[in-house]
């Protein structure tokens, strides 16, 4: 047996024995207080700690010292800390263990003389987490200044998991307090984050990452539990084997899965869980205990590779828990009217859900221009992003309201709050009706500048909005969404059918088909890809298309076939240099020759366009313009590359505002050069959905836009209320100034000038 193996076995035996002792201590205690005191006593003895304390969360949302071995007894039920106050408050709030070798020197230390903790230096606090909520804090303290080992942190985590289970079962409080704490934990919550896709949605909380089902902690029959654990593990291993046998898998994910499989079969993992079962825990509690130990280790590991592996193990533990509960590992089936909560979500994952049931989204991460947001917008699903705690504050089935305009989420709203949002919702539909009534009005500024408004489309469902909004046509059809939904590359015939449907639904209005912009965050599961550190700047868009004619040519063939007798507009994404257009045109010509030779019907006309999404293309836009018939500014990507700020990063995506002299003068240059080259240019970025930005873009000479359906009504109203010359004078008048955001002043100017901003 290796050194580390023998240590692990000893450690597991130690923790298992401790848990067993705790179990026994509980059996003979009469009152809740007695139970707690016995627990702190046996734990302190077992881990040889000078102090062992348990703080519990009260209905007032304070943390009270409920039991201690080692601190002054008089402090019990007297010492209280506010949420986030002192080291204990920080542990509860952050839901993370806190270790320090010199507690009094810690910036969050809160001195409580009655506890007599002055001489204590080392501190180890671990939160009691149940269903994602902090129920209290378990603390070990020592006189000597020392560092707790990983094993000690792991053991404390295991104890805290068990304490949380006991607390949740109501055994640590009297019944009344248990009820009041329950009410406090389930009180209405209001979270303010960032509105990404506007609209108000009502529904029931549903989790993309499902929380572990509830279960018992102690088992009567250890043998039977060991057998359950074995069966669960075998089923898990078989499912991982099946994943690997899937021949559709490409090299990179296979490697990842191979490592994943090694973990599924890892004997150390199995042995540690088995030992916990033999000590009297249920299979589920054993999995959670070992998971908690792993998480504690994970928190210490710096090496990214190892961390990833630890994450694998965490994922396996969750799958095993679901198996033990008799549930499959497949994506959740949504309740009717679901508000889906997730840390992050990809566009394909979103499309996998039943759209008729999905009413709103609450995501930890997503920017306005992320593809998940674009899909959500296309589907009309309000989205709020930029917080993590909805995951821990909500429970499946909780009532929720999501307001994607103001970026608010309400969990378990009071009837009054729900009512006010219902009112807002009906007001919004009234507003939509008002916009629809204006859809035929000319889209011209007060001083006679005509602005063309097109619509962005991702799925056929969007096309129903074309007439309602009065958009001039489809300015951007993102064809890649079809590639992302299925388990395999859509065949040319399937693509042709979709494009034909789009043409038919367009009813003669022009449609711009953008060839598949795959890569970056739009990676289809079946595609062979190498891991890239910066996929947004990697093998994507046209770069991938010219390297993989097997992907590009069938799409071109499908487009030509669907456009027989019609006007075909093809737009190439992520163009950086003109030679990419030439390569694409050569491939297109081959397809045209093929079809001509066979005497098939051809499109009435073919126009090619390039997306200006990189500063390189923008800077040399005249080179690009010489090779195409029209241009399209991909503002989402262009801004990301202009500011070198990841459009999907919560940390930087809102840091820079397009209403700033630098970016606006850059767009002004693009518009002017396109005009000089005699090529129409359309701004397709989602930024123009914001009316102040839209006015600024008009001010710098952009007169064609393609926006999501929901933005078109307000956009037309804005255009009709603007004086283009006046806004242009205002914006260009600030071009020479030092870099600074202009939004507030510009908005004030617009309001004063009577622009329709809401
Ligand atoms: C853009 O980048 O602005 C754009 C329209 O393309 P996408 O958002 O699909 O990358
Ligand atoms: Mg783009």
What does this molecule look like?
This protein is of the alpha/beta class. The chain has four domains: 31-185, GAF domain (Beta-Lactamase), CATH 3.30.450; 189-208 and 331-429, Glucose Oxidase, domain 1; 222-324, PtsI, HPr-binding domain (Enzyme I, Chain A, domain 2, Orthogonal Bundle); 438-752, TIM Barrel (Alpha-Beta Barrel). The protein is 47% helix and 16% strand. It is built from 28 helices and 22 strands. It has an eight-stranded mixed sheet with strand order 7-14-13-9-10-11-12-8. An eight-stranded parallel sheet has the order 21-20-19-18-17-16-15-22. Helix 15 (465-469) links the parallel strand 15 and strand 16 (474-478). Helix 1 packs antiparallel against helix 2 (32-47), helix 9 (283-300) packs antiparallel against helix 10 (304-324) and helix 19 crosses helix 20 (578-597). The radius of gyration is 30 Å and the shape is elongated. The structure holds phosphoenolpyruvate and magnesium ion. Magnesium ion is lined by residues 613, 634, 636-637.
Topology:
Elements: H1 3-27, H2 32-47, E1 51-57, E2 63-69, E3 80-81, H3 86-94, E4 98-100, E5 122-130, E6 133-142, H4 150-168, H5 175-185, E7 189-192, E8 194-197, E9 200-207, H6 222-245, H7 251-264, H8 267-278, H9 283-300, H10 304-324, E10 338-342, H11 347-352, E11 358-363, H12 371-379, E12 383-385, H13 390-393, E13 399-403, E14 408-411, H14 415-437, E15 452-457, H15 465-469, E16 474-478, H16 480-485, H17 492-506, E17 511-514, H18 541-547, H19 549-562, E18 567-575, H20 578-597, E19 605-612, H21 615-619, H22 621-625, E20 630-633, H23 635-642, H24 661-676, E21 681-683, H25 691-699, E22 704-707, H26 709-721, H27 724-732, H28 743-752
Parallel strand pairs: 9-10, 10-11, 11-12, 15-16, 15-22, 16-17, 17-18, 18-19, 19-20, 20-21
Antiparallel strand pairs: 1-2, 1-6, 2-3, 4-5, 5-6, 7-14, 8-12, 9-13, 13-14
The site of magnesium ion has 4 residues, from helix 23.
């Amino acid at each position: 047996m290796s050194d580390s193996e023998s240590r692990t076995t000893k450690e597991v035996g130690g923790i298992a024995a401790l848990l067993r002792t705790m179990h026994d201590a509980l059996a003979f205690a009469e009152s809740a207080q007695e139970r707690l005191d016995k627990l702190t006593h046996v734990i302190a003895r077992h881990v040889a700690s000078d102090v062992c304390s348990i703080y519990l969360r009260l209905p007032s949302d304070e943390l009270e010292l409920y039991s201690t071995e080692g601190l002054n007894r008089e402090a019990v039920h007297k010492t209280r800390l506010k949420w986030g106050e002192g080291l204990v408050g920080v542990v509860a709030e952050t839901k993370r263990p806190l270790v320090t070798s010199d507690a009094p020197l810690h910036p969050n230390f809160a001195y409580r003389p009655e506890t007599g903790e002055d001489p204590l230096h080392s501190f180890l606090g671990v939160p009691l987490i149940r269903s994602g909520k902090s129920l209290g804090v378990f603390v070990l303290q020592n006189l000597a200044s020392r560092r707790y080992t990983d094993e000690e942190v792991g053991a404390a985590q295991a104890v805290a998991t068990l304490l949380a289970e006991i607390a949740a079962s109501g055994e640590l409080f009297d019944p009344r307090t248990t009820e009041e704490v329950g009410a406090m934990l389930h009180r209405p919550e209001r979270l303010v984050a960032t509105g990404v896709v506007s609209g108000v949605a009502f529904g029931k909380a549903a989790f993309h990452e499902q929380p572990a089902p509830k279960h018992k902690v102690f088992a009567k029959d250890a043998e039977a539990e060991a057998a359950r654990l074995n069966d669960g593990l075998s089923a898990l291993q078989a499912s991982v084997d099946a994943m690997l046998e899937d021949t559709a898998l490409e090299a990179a994910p296979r490697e990842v899965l191979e490592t994943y499989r090694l973990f599924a079969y890892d004997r150390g993992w199995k042995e540690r869980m088995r030992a916990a079962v033999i000590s009297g825990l249920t299979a589920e509690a054993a999995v959670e205990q070992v998971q908690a130990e792993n998480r504690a280790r994970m928190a210490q590991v710096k090496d990214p590779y190892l961390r990833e592996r630890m994450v694998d193990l965490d994922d396996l533990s969750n799958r095993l828990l679901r198996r033990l509960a008799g549930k499959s590992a497949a994506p959740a089936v949504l309740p009717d009217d679901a508000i889906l909560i997730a840390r992050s979500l990809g566009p394909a994952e979103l499309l996998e859900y039943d759209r008729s049931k999905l009413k709103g989204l609450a995501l930890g991460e997503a920017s306005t221009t992320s593809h998940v947001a674009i899909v959500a917008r296309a589907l009309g699903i309000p989205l709020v992003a930029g917080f993590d705690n909805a995951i821990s504050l909500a429970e499946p089935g909780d009532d929720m309201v999501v307001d994607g305009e103001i970026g608010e989420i309400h969990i378990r709203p009071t009837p009054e709050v729900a009512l006010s949002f219902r009112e807002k919702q009906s007001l919004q539909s009234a507003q939509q009706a008002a916009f629809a009534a204006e859809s035929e009005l000319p889209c011209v500024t007060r001083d006679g500048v005509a602005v063309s408004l097109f619509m962005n489309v991702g799925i056929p469902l969007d096309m129903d909005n074309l007439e309602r909004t009065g958009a001039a046509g489809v300015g951007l059809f993102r064809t890649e969404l079809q590639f992302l939904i299925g388990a395999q590359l859509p065949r040319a015939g399937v693509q042709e059918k979709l494009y034909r449907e789009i043409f038919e639904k367009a009813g003669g209005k022009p449609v711009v088909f953008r060839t598949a912009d795959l890569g970056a965050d739009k990676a289809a599961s079946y595609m062979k890809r190498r891991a890239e550190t910066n996929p947004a700047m990697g093998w994507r868009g046209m770069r991938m298309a010219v390297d993989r004619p097997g992907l590009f040519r069938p799409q071109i063939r499908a487009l030509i076939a669907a456009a027989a007798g019609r006007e075909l507009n093809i737009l190439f994404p992520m163009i950086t240099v003109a030679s990419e257009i030439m390569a694409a045109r050569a491939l297109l010509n081959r397809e045209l020759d093929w079809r001509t030779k066979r005497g098939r019907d051809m499109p009435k006309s073919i126009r090619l366009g390039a997306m200006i999404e990189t500063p390189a293309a923008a800077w040399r836009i005249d080179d690009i313009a010489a090779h195409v018939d029209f241009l399209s500014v991909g503002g989402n990507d262009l801004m990301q590359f202009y500011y070198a700020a990841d459009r999907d990063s919560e940390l930087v995506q809102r840091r820079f505002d397009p209403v700033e002299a630098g970016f606006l003068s850059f767009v002004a240059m693009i518009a002017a050069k396109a005009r000089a080259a005699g090529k129409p240019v359309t701004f397709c970025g989602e930024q123009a959905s914001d009316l102040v930005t839209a006015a600024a873009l008009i001010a710098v000479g952009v007169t064609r836009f393609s926006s999501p359906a929901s933005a078109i009504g307000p956009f037309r109203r804005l255009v009709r209320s603007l004086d283009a010359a006046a806004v242009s004078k205002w914006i260009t008048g600030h071009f020479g100034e030092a870099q600074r955001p202009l939004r507030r002043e510009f908005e004030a100017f617009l309001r004063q000038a009577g622009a329709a901003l809401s």
